[in-house]
From TrEMBL:
This is ATP-grasp domain-containing protein. It comes from Phyllobacterium zundukense. GO terms for molecular function: ATP binding; metal ion binding. Residues 246-294 form the ATP-grasp domain. Keywords: ATP-binding, Nucleotide-binding. Signal peptide: none annotated. InterPro entries: ATP-grasp, ATP-grasp_PylC-type, UCP016817_carboligase.
Length: 379
């Protein structure tokens, strides 16, 4: 279905947001002049404050979003409004059939289920990279002879928690093996209009290691500049992928950079964790996301300095999260009294600086400073 409002993108129109965590999309929707109606797994205090209305989706971080009630939940959330579109975040790559179901009732702005399957299925992406001459790590489904050279991943997984070093127990029906490549990570944020990829900017990410999740997403820093020749190569290859798969809207591509060049690791076919450090009051990315999905002319934000964001996790289980006087430059706050398991996210922390190195240092320092509020065992 297609909303007639989508063609005009009027101010103060309602927009449906569905994701594992919808706060950053809700904030982006507000910056873009929309009224966010949010369905996610957390309903944290920030999301509730940003949203016109919000509901908690059934599901979990481990099992994902419950697909059985997703359409019914969004319909109830929409109420008497006529939303411009549904914008989805993380949580749909594992079950793209949810996009098929939602698109029968609402206009979906972003990638189709078909496109998601093309770029998130490891066999499909590997084949596309081979055909388009894009370096990509080897994949396999049988247990490798030299497991120290391989990682195991969940098909459609996101956030890094599903990535583990390969071992004899790490295979399964939804998992695959990808050869490990040592080097620097690089993420390219881009707007796709089904024909061309338009680079928004680049970031570097880091892991927040835990015993069972050595590659868990920790944070990201927006780079002030990146090698022009390499940037042009990336945009050219992502354009080739866009034409073959029909990528639409705000997406990101993760690379590993080593002495041999750039290796594409994965495509994230939706707005992701770096939205906060790239969004702009002057050029709201949620509007550019909608315009890209419609095939309209796009505006790319201009940036000064650098920005970083990081997720703070709790190392221990907490039976009732304490009352915290949250400082500025934080978001996604856990509500006091909430029971948390070890490894659950507590909040997101931000920092800005004149350089990427300074922004990254500042945000990591702020995470350590804040952790004193929940470092003790509150069980």
């Amino acid at each position: 279905m297609h909303s007639p409002l989508l063609a005009t993108l009027p101010n103060n129109a309602a927009i449906l947001i569905a994701a594992i965590s919808g706060r950053s999309l809700a904030a982006a929707a507000r910056r873009g002049g929309f009224r966010p109606l949010v369905a996610d797994l957390f309903n944290d205090a920030d999301t509730l404050a940003l949203a016109d209305r919000a509901v908690k989706l059934s599901g979990s971080l481990q099992a994902g979003i419950d697909e059985d009630r997703i359409v019914e939940t969004l319909s109830e959330l929409a109420g008497g409004d006529e939303p411009v579109a549904v914008v989805f975040g993380s949580g749909f790559e594992r079950k793209p059939e949810m996009i098929d179901a939602i698109s029968k009732e609402f206009s979906v702005s972003g990638n189709s289920a078909k496109t998601i399957r093309l770029v998130k299925d490891p066999v499909s992406l590997s084949r596309l990279c081979s055909e388009l001459k894009i370096p990509h790590p080897d994949i396999r489904f049988d247990i490798p002879e030299n497991p120290q050279e391989w990682l195991t991943k969940l098909t459609g997984g996101a956030g890094g928690s599903h990535v583990k070093p390969a071992n004899g127990d790490a295979s399964g029906p939804e998992r695959y093996f990808q050869r490990f490549i040592s080097g620097k990570n690089l993420s390219a944020l881009f707007l796709a209009d089904r024909h061309k990829a338009h680079i928004v900017g680049f970031s570097r990410q880091w892991s927040s290691r835990s015993k069972n999740t050595p590659f868990r997403y920790g944070g990201a820093v927006r780079l002030q500049r990146y090698d022009g020749q390499k940037a042009a190569w990336i945009e050219d290859r992502l354009t080739a992928l866009t034409r073959r798969t029909g990528l639409a809207g705000l997406c990101s591509a993760d690379f590993i950079e080593d002495d041999c060049g750039l290796h594409l690791i994965e495509i994230n076919p939706r707005p992701g964790a770096t939205l906060d450090i790239f969004d702009s009051e002057e050029t709201p990315l949620i509007r550019e996301h909608l315009r890209a999905a419609m095939g309209c002319n796009l505006s790319i934000p201009a940036y000064r300095g650098s920005a970083a964001s990081a997720i703070a996790y709790t190392a221990k289980a907490i039976s009732a999260f304490p009352q915290v006087a949250w400082p500025a430059m934080t978001a996604d706050h856990q509500l006091s009294g909430t029971a948390l398991r070890a490894g659950d996210p507590v909040c997101t922390v931000f920092a800005t600086a004149n350089s990427a190195a300074a922004a990254m240092k500042a945000v990591k320092s702020r995470v350590k400073e804040l952790a004193v509020h929940w470092r003790e065992d509150f069980r």
